[in-house]
Amino acid sequence: MKQWLIILCCAVFVIASLLTSGLTRALIDLTAFACLLWIVLGYKSTPVKQS
What we know:
Elements: H1 2-18, H2 23-42
Helix pairs in contact: 1-2
């Protein structure tokens, strides 16, 4: 699910960035960066159990 969430966020932010310009575009890019950082760093991977 994590990969699909990252791909979906990237697609949404790229489309929004293409449709805007100027300060709005910069804010969308900054929000996209923060969102992707939150997704990547926020999820804790479950430790693998060794038999």
